Fold these 2 entries.
Entry 1:
Amino acid sequence: MLKKYFKIFILALILVVVTELIGQKKIKLGPGYLVFLPMLYALVIGIIISLPKLKIMSEDEMKLSNDIMGIVVILFVAKIGATMGPSIVMLVKSGWALCFQELGHFLGTVILGLPIALLLGLKREAVGATFSIDREPNIAIIAEKYGMDSPEGRGVMGIYICGTLFGAIYIGLLAGYIGSVKIFNPLALAMGSGVGSGSMMAAASGAITAVFPAKAKEIASFAAASNLITTIVGIYFTLFVSLPVANKLYGWLEPKIGRNSKKRGEI
């Protein structure tokens, strides 16, 4: 039974040793700096060694790795939950701030993302791509309402795949850089890192912690609470607010700014 996992465990061990030896690196960029953590190196190297052309890992081994990830995520969530306990009073005091951070996801995806998607030439795919950050619960909403073979289904899956491949790397670098500028309170940044994805939250909160090590426990607590709220409340918010607004906004903006709009061509 363990033989089929042996190669995966050895590769994982090598990745951990190599990335930890590289260690944390900071590169100066303008007023702040990019923070490169071992987790980011591991993600990049993991993507490379899983390329089919290299034949380092088989498809079956990749599926097994995915199963192992489920167990690892459970352990990670348990650790975060234990961290949240001692900070529960502080979390309750920040209740409204944690709740209202959900509006940031709405403004960033629908209000900003949809017009850009239309300018790039997307049609109904833009609705699926920008009504949320497109993680698993959001895919279920689109699948139930439109079906996965629809333009909306293609849009949501496109962003989901991009987020899976590059999301943690992108948000980790972004969070570390914004944190290094030290304009925002680290706890506000921690709230913002809870986007509804465990891997993205871990990457973002890890980068913020690297900049503010003295507030490591508070950052982990706020990030976890924010992520939990986004996962639970976000489902209803995207279903009853974001998706209807995205549809309305699409109907209004597409004739005006859509790249291949017939109405735009007639004007």
Entry 2:
Amino acid sequence: MNEKDPINSLNEIKSMMQKSSKFTSINGWSGIWAGFVGIISAAIAHFILLGNSSNYSNYQEFSDVSTVRLELILLGIVTVIIAATGGFYFMIKKSSKDNIKFINPVTKRILKRFCFILFIGGIVCLLFIKNLNLLYFAPSTLLFYGLALFHVERDTITEIKYLAITEIFLGLLAYYFIYNGLLFWLIGFGVLHVVFGIWIILKYRNKA
């Protein structure tokens, strides 16, 4: 018993240091929530585009360009708000369970770095929408989202790095297969997040 106590103490100290230097409140349910929101959003976007043109890869065929543009912008805003709200809820819940203060210097640092990249990406995407270059919207959102995740991966759990790299890869693929952007968006923001969330739950369920 005495031999195990020093080891347990070292593990506890290591755990405390990690919690104070890294954001460990990533919750698998946050990923699953974001994934389902992404899937629903992609389906709505599909019907918005399909409702204005039989061939929505050709945006010149839209019956009402201004309406499509406005609907897509509103859909994007609502999607981000709903996904972020649910994500924060599950992360705050996990922080409370782990007796960790959610708002701390690490969280603030991550939010600043993450939001900076997303802000730049958001401006780029809005410019694409403004100029009706909608084909580049989906690849750009995937790419900048992946870059934002990669920018903060050192401050959070290791698995975020793999999610970031996959999102970046999907974004680049979406640029290459430019007419399948919505499909890649569905995979990247929908399916991939659900898979990621399940992976996190299964991996850390015995460590709770």
